[in-house]
Specification:
351 residues, Rossmann fold, 12 helices, disordered N terminus
């Protein structure tokens, strides 16, 4: 299934003399080797003390999405730490389902609402109604940039910088292919966040002299499980050996007679869920993931809501993405840095 982000395909054709003369390749290799320090995943330096106990609602675009489910678990953990009750509602992957879930949340008169993977623009009128009712709303991947977006009714939006996510995914493809990548990008057209990630990836790939952007496909995440195999089959027929990486369509690759340990491989950007890491560990159709610290982002969502309830502006904190490959893939679960972020948020809240 496609994640909420961009997926890249690139030919792992090796280096060649041209790679040594293309500054984009050297820059990509430097970016891939750069590892954010643990301190970058600690969270903000200060904030608001814990506001009185309340009930809040996490409205998910689709709880079957591993990234959204992981963020919801982090928010539930953080809600318990701050002393709030959290209820989760599922929009079941449709705009209508998301709207119904949001309206059900508002009828509960909650102390706050969290959007999990719901594009805020598609629900703007309902979110502005929440704002008028004095209900703070924060999102995960709800808009195109981190921070508040008042015009969309968002008091805060939690994510790694989408441009950084897209660039790092593309840099891995450029570096791994030695500057000879033939690439396809699959992204969700409904999401402003996905558009930012995919656009940044495409721009970065075009900096590479010998790289080719073979296809740019827009596939809604709600139908990706059905659509992706046919798309990948078409890509394989059209581009053949020029295609070296692809994500989200193992059945198509199996039907084409491709083994999990041979091209094309997946490079995903925009989440970092457990299923991706399992594929990387097993060397099955996925080479790398540009991951976000999903559990930390769940805690950050609670902190942003707490700031909104306290009348404080959102934090300026945005965790950097982390490239995960077989060399450092976690042994289980997602990317959860041992940075002390839980203790930091408890300190801020006075808990």
């Amino acid at each position: 299934m496609l994640i909420a982000g961009a997926t890249l395909a690139a030919a792992g054709c090796g280096g060649g003399a041209a790679a040594h003369h293309d500054p984009a390749v050297a820059a990509a290799r430097a970016a891939v080797e750069r590892v954010p320090p643990l301190s970058a995943y600690r969270g903000p330096a200060d904030g608001a003390p814990a506001q009185p106990p309340t009930a809040i609602v996490f409205v998910a675009a689709n709880l079957l999405d591993g990234g959204i489910a992981a963020v919801a678990r982090g928010a539930e953990e953080a809600a318990g730490a701050i002393g709030w009750r959290l209820q989760v509602l599922d929009g079941e992957s449709t705009v209508e389902g998301e709207q119904a879930a949001l309206r059900a949340a508002l009828r509960r008169h909650p102390g706050g609402i969290i959007l999990g993977g719901i594009d805020a623009q598609s629900q703007r009128s309902t979110l502005l109604s929440a704002r008028a009712a004095g209900v703070p709303v924060v999102g995960w991947h709800a808009g195109g940039t981190p921070g508040a977006e008042p015009a969309l009714g968002l008091d805060g939006d939690v994510m790694s910088p989408p441009v950084a996510l897209g660039r790092l995914a593309a840099d891995y493809v450029i570096s791994d292919s030695g500057g000879h990548a033939g690439s396809a990008i699959l992204t969700d057209p409904r999401s402003a966040f996905c558009a930012q990630v995919a656009g940044a990836a495409a721009t970065e790939l075009r900096r590479c002299t010998r790289c080719s952007l073979l296809a740019f496909s827009q596939t809604p995440s709600a139908t990706a499980a059905v659509d992706a195999p046919a798309l990948v089959s078409a890509f394989l027929q059209e581009y053949g050996p020029r295609l070296g990486y692809i994500e989200g369509a193992a059945s198509a690759l199996l039907s084409a007679g491709r083994r999990g340990d041979e091209p094309p491989y997946g490079v995903a950007a925009g989440a970092g869920e457990e299923a991706e890491f399992a594929r990387i560990r097993a060397d099955q159709y996925q080479r790398a993931s540009v991951a976000e610290p999903l559990n930390l982002e769940g805690w950050q969502l609670i902190d942003e809501l707490n700031r909104g309830r306290a009348g404080r502006p959102p934090s300026s904190y945005s965790p950097p993405p982390r490239l995960i490959t077989s060399a450092d893939v976690p042994s289980g679960g997602g990317f959860d840095p041992a940075s002390g972020y839980r203790q930091n948020y408890r300190r801020i809240w006075g808990r």
